[in-house]
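Can't attach files on this board, so I'm pasting raw text. These are the components:
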Amino acid sequence: MTSEQPSLDATQLGVYFALIEASSLLKHAVEQQLQDAGELSYVQFQLLASLADSPEGSRRMTDLADGVVYSRSGLTYQAQTLEKRGLVTRTPSSDDERSITVTITEQGHAVLAGVFPGHIAILGDLLFAPLSRSDIETLADILGRARDHMRRTPPRSAAPRQRKKATEERSP
Amino acid sequence: MTSEQPSLDATQLGVYFALIEASSLLKHAVEQQLQDAGELSYVQFQLLASLADSPEGSRRMTDLADGVVYSRSGLTYQAQTLEKRGLVTRTPSSDDERSITVTITEQGHAVLAGVFPGHIAILGDLLFAPLSRSDIETLADILGRARDHMRRTPPRSAAPRQRKKATEERSP
DNA sequence: TATTGTTATACTCTATAACTATA
DNA sequence: TATAGTTATAGAGTATAACAATA
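---
Top answer:
Structure tokens for the assembled complex are below.
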């Protein structure tokens, strides 16, 4: 087990808070922009971007979910929303009849294109403006390693350590 | 205007994605733990932690909102929830009759205490495990600067560049 | 008038569990 | 039996606008 020391030093706490607050502020700003410029939620944007980045603009539902959504029904919901707007199509996969292939449409590409400039502008102004070239390279390295580690680490490893509270409160 | 170059290089994109995904994975894991160990949402945890960190365990509503919540009604909602559970009290401020002073209770401290070990364990396992001491110090510096910059930067600076869709809102 | 906070309301999103269909 | 995806449903959270009270 990795975690026996139940405390963090000041620098670690600082990293934690800075990470959470920075990503929260950034995400909030970007969400606003995506909404204003393309009526997209952040998740929808991620899904479209993921498709646009895929060969043929297609992915199976399950693959599409990767790191974007934490439940299947959540993905179904978002995919339906995007389909209603004509930004993606969903068709049964040819090789595996259980799978659905999601494909980004022309319209989807158009919405993405309409959203990109503002999106990038925000990243420039908000995230990269105060950072030097070498800061950015360093960040890419460290955050990249952190992310890779988190991807690999099973979510259940640490959570069930705490025992559930004994107090059972009943409300009307 | 800061943003005329409508593109990012590969390293910048990498930083952006790594930041978003790492914080998302971390937050998701932590949210689960907070829920299991103390039936707290992340926002509620932040509010309690903010109070616990304040002199006398108290803050005015408006000050409490800082960087945690983006709308006043959202804070009212969460404060009410915490009050119902007896984790905070709300009393009119003595100096300014418009203000409400929110104070963490013994129970609130207890819930926080019950949640901390598991919380810290997750941070250790998920965020800090793959990082060296110097990585952490570097991250603290860079992310701290990024966060400070975002705090200072007015949210509206970049968003309204994209023109709003032609759909007009009507009054009832 | 400006500020502090609440309420009402509507909406988005998420997750769990039960279900269908294919491998 | 295991996997892919959907549906129903319920709950948490958020934001906007109208509001009241105090500065």
